[in-house]
Amino acid sequence: MNASFEEIYSKYYDTLYMDKDYGKECDFIVEAFKRHSPFKPVKILDVGCGTGGHLIPLARKGYEVVGIDKSEWMISVAEEKIREHNLPARVLVADVLDFNLDEKFDACIAMFAVINYIVQTDDLIKAFKNMRRHLKSGALFIFDYWYGPAVLTIKPSAKVKVVEKDGVKVIRTVVPELDTFNCVQKTNYCLIAIREGRVMDEAREVHVLRYLFPQELVHYLNEAGFKVLKFCEFPYLHKPPDENTWNVAAIAAAQ
To answer: Concatenated DSSP letters for 44-57?
Structure first.
């Protein structure tokens, strides 16, 4: 049986994003805790944790982190990292819409456009409510998202990314289709991995992401039991977003 896109993508995910500054992004999260949380967080819920890009640095800082992700392949990679570094963290396969961990957390994060993958409004509110149920009163919810005004100003464009690690060249092409009526981008992915001139893996898939506007997020988060504290350019806590800010962070507090 051919491997799925999800399985192949998880294999090369960390290679594709080895240029992403997870450390800087986690510093942003910690700074947001210091400035906006009414108490010092200890237990953090990481929704859509993937291979642990944020979970691992936060666990190394001493936080107790629980990560969930729909992809068993991503979770498998994260589990291996946790074992390797003997960190205070655990991960499990679960869906943000219906997970139930039967515990409360001091903070929740959903990083790297996790929220944009929840396309339907009812599902988005359901996800926010589910995260709220897992948080103590006053706990922070921090996430980054595609900022609607910037998406419409900059417009998405086709991109090719080529990276190489351990003798394997990974080529990923992204061809976007913008649907402004539904506020979504259909992203056509193609990934090819090559070693010594031979194609090792190849996969294609279409991802649909919804870009969001601040006032609708205020409404959805209020309905779910949150109060929005701040929107800022990600990962700069004191920089307001503008029409050229593709990635914006939202910081909300559980009411």
So the answer is: EEEET-TTTTTHHH
- Asked if 185 contacts 179 with a C-beta cutoff of 8 angstroms, the reply is yes
> Residue 197 corresponds to which tokens in the numbers above?
């001139």
The Cα–Cα gap between 130 and 58 comes to 22
Q: Which structure tokens are listed for 134?
A: 């897992």
What structural domains and CATH numbers belong to the chain? Answer: 5-147+211-254 (3.40.50.150), 151-209 (2.20.25.110)
Which among 166, 197, 198 has a CA at the least distance from the CA of 11? 166
78-103 pLDDT, tens digit per residue, is: 999 999 999 999 999 999 999 999 99
**What's this model's pTM, rounded to 2 decimal places?**
0.97
Q: Long-range contacts for 212-221 (Cβ within 8 Å, ≥24 apart)?
A: 212/115, 212/116, 212/145, 212/146, 212/147, 212/148, 212/183, 213/147, 213/148, 213/149, 214/147, 214/241, 214/248, 214/250, 217/145, 217/250, 220/121, 220/124, 220/125, 220/128, 221/128, 221/141, 221/250, 221/252
Query: What does the pLDDT average to over 193-208?
Result: 97
Name the burial class of residue 30, with classes exposed (0-12), middle (13-18) and buried (19+) by CB atoms within 10 angstroms of its CB: middle
